[in-house]
Amino acid sequence: MTETATAPLTGKALLAKVKELSNLPRRERAKQCGYYTVTKNNQVRVNLTDFYDALLSARGIPLSPEAPKDGRGREPTYRVSVHQNGQIVIGATYTKAMGLKHGDEFEIKLGYKHIHLIQVDSDKKELQSDVDIDEEEDEIEEEE
Predict the structure, then answer these.
(1) What is the DSSP string of 3-38?
(2) Are residues 34 and 13 in contact, defined by beta-carbon separation less than 8 angstroms?
(3) Residue 67 belongs to what H/E stretch?
(4) Which residues contact 120 (CB under 8 A, 6 or more apart)?
(5) What is the pLDDT of residues 13-60, one digit of tens each?
(6) Closest by alpha carbon to 107, among 116, 94, 98?
(7) Where is the composition biased (Acidic residues) (predicted)?
(8) Other C-beta atoms within 10 Å of 54: how many?
């Protein structure tokens, strides 16, 4: 059998070795690339998670970026808390992800232990304002 690597392979060397060992099972491939540990009882444990992370990184897909793209802010967690003043702030990251713009309106529906935010369509808003204008004109005509 082939000799296992002493230090885990990374980058192009890892990709080349994985391609070379494509006929072996995935655990054996990970072991041959150096992604294993030996326990106190001399049992070999294969670290598949580290192996997959290294493979993704070698292919240019980092799983845990060290810093955000622009170096500012935090990563979205999809969790918020109520502030001291009673407000809940969603944050710009979420509004950008949803494609929301300044002035977009929402209808708030309260449920038992949940809140629904329903975006008001701009078409419906325009329709509603047209109806309001027509009603105002009718009221003016009735008064005359």
Answers:
(1) PPPSS---HHHHHHHHHHTTTS-HHHHHHHTT-EEE
(2) no
(3) none
(4) 104, 105, 106, 107
(5) 888 888 888 898 888 998 888 899 888 888 889 888 888 888 888 888
(6) 116
(7) 129-144
(8) 22
DSSP for 85-128, written as a single string: TS-----HHHHHHHT--TT--EEEEEETTEEEEEEPPHHHHHHH
Global pTM value: 0.42
Q: Which three-class secondary structure state does DSSP give residue 44?
A: strand
CA distances to 56, 63, 76, 77 from 84, in Å: 42, 35, 21, 20
- Start-to-end C-alpha separation, the chain: 102
